[in-house]
Write a structure and sequence with these properties.
The protein is built from seven helices and 14 strands. By secondary structure, the protein is an alpha+beta fold. A six-stranded mixed sheet has the order 4-14-10-5-9-8. The chain has two domains: 160 residues, Major capsid protein gp5 fold, CATH 3.30.2400; 106 residues. It is globular, with a radius of gyration of 24 Å.
């Protein structure tokens, strides 16, 4: 007797095989989303929930002179800066199927084309929203560096100066995401292509080995259009995400249609930190437009 393909069986198999795999693959596939701050307080149970991100403010401190006033010190009250982030975005992708046989054959495949396509669509929507929040300070010193047609060592040196002058913390690595054109510009620059300028161990992000130059771990991001780059300290942006990706499948009979629909979605939210505008640098040739 042939195996029976029914909605209940296929839905159960998808939850068993795809749900945990999809969540891990999504987290691994995001570039910008995997590098920004992901810590938060609270729980996202449904879309629209608000969670908080806390940051301890550094004390002012004091300098005293031994023999004069160094036997005592003044205390300061511990203070925090809090950012409220609403998980009000849902990245979703879906397919319609005429029958369940084709879908069932995909479930146990290690490299399912259906799963990979849905993953790509969801991650693209998350990426698009994160880049839409990028807004570097335009006040002196300007962190929006325009007119860069070819990314060279002199440009990276100038960006490194901006980061240093803005006192970016060094408790976390600094990163740069650049488009393929900028990435190849670096390969054509003798200073940037030479391993003599590569200091420290290689950093691997989403399966890619970062190129370390001038203190930045540089990665290629093909989501960015030609001649665009983003240099940043991870805490310039905070992202919150629902713990698990939701996968649902149902029939279309209620819509007077034959077939089935499967959707994959994840609830998330993001926001620049309080001083995020000076903790990232936008580099581009013409207008900054990564969402085009």
């Amino acid at each position: 007797m042939p195996a029976i393909t029914d909605l209940t069986t296929v839905a159960a198999q998808i939850q068993q095989y795809w749900a945990p795999m999809f969540t891990k693959e999504l987290r691994d596939s995001l570039l910008l989303g995997s590098l920004v701050n992901r810590d938060y307080q609270g729980e996202i149970r449904q879309g629209g929930d608000t969670v908080k991100v806390s940051q301890i403010n550094a004390p002012t401190g004091e300098l005293r002179t031994i023999g004069t006033d160094a036997d005592v010190f003044a205390t300061e009250e511990l203070s925090e800066s809090q950012i409220s982030i609403k998980a009000d975005k849902r990245a979703v992708a879906s397919y319609e199927f005429t029958d369940l046989v084709g879908l069932q054959s995909q479930i146990s495949m290690e490299n399912s084309e259906v799963r990979e396509a849905l993953l790509y669509a969801v991650s693209k929507q998350i990426n698009k929203h994160l880049y839409s929040l990028v807004a570097a300070s335009a006040s002196a010193p300007d962190h929006q560096v325009s007119g860069v047609s070819d990314l060279a060592a002199t440009n990276l040196a100038a960006i490194r100066i901006l980061a240093g002058q803005a006192a970016w913390p060094k408790s976390k690595p600094w990163y740069a995401l650049v488009d393929p054109q900028y990435y190849m510009d670096m390969g054509d620059d003798t200073t940037l292509s030479s391993s003599d300028y590569n200091a420290g161990d290689a950093v691997i992000v989403s399966g890619e080995i970062a190129t370390k130059r001038f203190g930045f771990n540089i990665l290629e991001d093909n989501y960015l259009p030609a001649d665009h780059g983003l240099f940043f300290y991870p805490d310039f942006m905070h992202m919150v995400m629902q713990r698990d990706v939701q996968i649902k499948i149902s029939d279309l009979h209620s819509q007077k249609k034959f077939g089935y629909v499967m959707s994959v979605d994840v609830v998330f939210g993001a926001k620049l930190s309080n001083d995020g505008d000076i903790r990232h640098v936008q580099v581009y040739n013409s207008a900054w437009a990564p969402n085009g």
